[in-house]
Amino acid sequence: MTSSKGWTPERRAQQAARIREQQPWLKSTGPKSAAGKATVSRNAFKGGYWRELRDMARDLDQCLLELRRGLDKF
């Protein structure tokens, strides 16, 4: 049976074996530039403000809708 990405269990096992052979994690050096280091420093950041901003945007949309409805009455 294939998964949603088309990987059969055999293909998955072959890929896992290749990765264990090559051990790419031993060759990884991480970011070298200041910009790269700044980017990866945010990898674990889960956010938090986006929910607040989304809720604020919804509240603002609701207020604007009520204002438009109020203006349409005139």
UniProtKB/TrEMBL annotation:
UniProt region (Disordered), positions on chain: 1-38
Biased segments, Basic and acidic residues type: 8-21
Name used for this protein in its record: Uncharacterized protein
